[in-house]
Amino acid sequence: MDNREIILGRALELWSQRGYDAVGVQEIVESAGITKPTMYHYFGSKRGLLDALIDERTEDLRNALAPAASYNGDLVATLESIVRGYFAFARENSALYRMLLAFWFAPADSDEYRAVAARNAAQHESLERLFEAAAKQHGNMRGRQKAYAATFLGMINTYAGLALNGHATLDDQLVYRATHQFMHGIFS
Amino acid sequence: MDNREIILGRALELWSQRGYDAVGVQEIVESAGITKPTMYHYFGSKRGLLDALIDERTEDLRNALAPAASYNGDLVATLESIVRGYFAFARENSALYRMLLAFWFAPADSDEYRAVAARNAAQHESLERLFEAAAKQHGNMRGRQKAYAATFLGMINTYAGLALNGHATLDDQLVYRATHQFMHGIFS
DNA sequence: CGGCCAGTATACCGAACGGTATAGCGCGGC
DNA sequence: GCCGCGCTATACCGTTCGGTATACTGGCCG
Fold it and tell me: Is B59 exposed, middle or buried (0-12, 13-18, 19+ CB in 10 A)?
């Protein structure tokens, strides 16, 4: 493994455990067994390292929203496959998802927010378009695409957070339950 | 207003805008028009300032969970009054709620997490007991108290986050809609 | 009056912050 | 053989970090 990948891996590990601001460049390069100029050669700045980390390691998460774009009228199946994609990603990239969760409501005037703002906006738009399309079949949903996109993602993140703390398991059963809860509430 | 209150107010303002780690003691005391020893006289440390801020300004939020403790069999009404309490608090203490949201998924090994850990645990326990009690009437809920407590709070926070960014209004209509969505899903 | 004490300021501490100037290394191409 | 270049280290920059030693002030209590 080359130094670039080692740096990315160590930064991810440390930031997910203690936060972006709390872990400095010095500690990351020490943990990676290299020195600062090497890190600055590859990434240019601390912020550049964060951007690279997020850009390069969230591709699978972008793909998880593909079902939203190819909605075919079966809303439950579409939502289920999105939840399945997110849960799989969170399972296989737990440190990264932990960090993304911490950035979820980061202050607007912070590097963390700026690093994920575009990604999050794209996620929301994709889901809003899905609920917009679904509203044509289900008239009573109209006008609430934004709220549904946000609460759908919020539910996914809530369950992911539970799982990261050992209070849930992101398996197919939870995919079904979560989707069913979102569609029909907690009574059924 | 005495210096102690001024310090609390300025710390809240700055932290909610840019994050706890990103704003240092020096900037807070300058913004408050005093010097560091004054702040250290009242709060002992940066962390002590954070603890005091959270302890002293979240009393109304603790009260918002009172309906959970006096559950009388009407789950919808209980949840509605809890949501109403949270929404009112978020409306009237927007900067504080912004900060609490940023701390929601803070790394476990961070001052932010430690500052809100006890509060959040108490919140969850209170809600879990509520859903536990409700499960006696609604058998199909059994065993999911933890998940319901988490997703209920998650939905509240998601809507609060939307409102803080101008995408929603935390009024009685949204109280009704949010509760109804949690109970019966997005279809009705 | 005298003493105490809460509150505040000046000036400072060592450590860590993000970032860089400079120089050397090894390796592929000419 | 040597030039260029990608990569890496030593050593350093100015600034800010959280925190403090010391001293002064004003007001209250005896």
Answer: exposed
User: Which residues 43-82 on A are within 7 A of strand C at the CB atom?
Assistant: 45-47
Gyration radius from chain B CA atoms: 18
Helical pair B25-32 and B3-18, crossing angle rounded to 10 deg: 130
- DSSP secondary structure letters along A92-148: HTHHHHHHHHHHHT--TTSHHHHHHHHHHHHHHHHHHHHHHHHHTT-GGGTT-HHHH
Nearest to A98 by CA among A14, A8, A174, A6: A14
List chain A residues with CB under 8 Å of B144: 186
- The nearest CA of chain B is from the CA of A2 a distance in Å of 28
**Token pair listed for A141:** 């949903």
Distance from CA of B157 to the nearest CA of A (A): 8
Dihedral, B140, B145, B148, B154 alpha carbons, nearest 10 = 180
Question: With an 8 Å Cβ cutoff, are A155 and B157 in contact?
Answer: no
| pLDDT averages per 10-residue partition of chain A, 188 residues | 95 98 98 98 98 97 96 95 98 98 98 98 97 85 89 98 97 98 88
Q: CA-CA distance, B50 to A84, in Å (whole number)? A: 38
Residue in this structure with the two tokens 């969170």, named with its chain if needed: A90
CB contact under 8 A, A186 and B183: yes
- CB of residue A41 closer than 7 A to nucleic acid strand D? yes
Question: Scanning every residue of chain B, which has its alpha carbon at the shortest distance from the alpha carbon of A113?
Answer: B18
B173: buried, middle or exposed (CB in 10 Å: 19+, 13-18, 0-12)? Answer: exposed
pLDDT in tens, B33-71: 999 999 999 999 999 999 999 999 999 999 999 999 999
Residue B96 CA distance to nucleotide C11 C1' (Å): 34
The full set of domains in chain A, from first to last, is 3-56 (1.10.10.60), 58-184 (1.10.357.10)
pLDDT above 90: residue B141? no
CB-strand contact A34/C, under 7 Å: no
How far, in Å, is the CA of A160 from the C1' of nucleotide D22? 53
- Nucleotide D21 C1' to residue B71 CA (A): 56
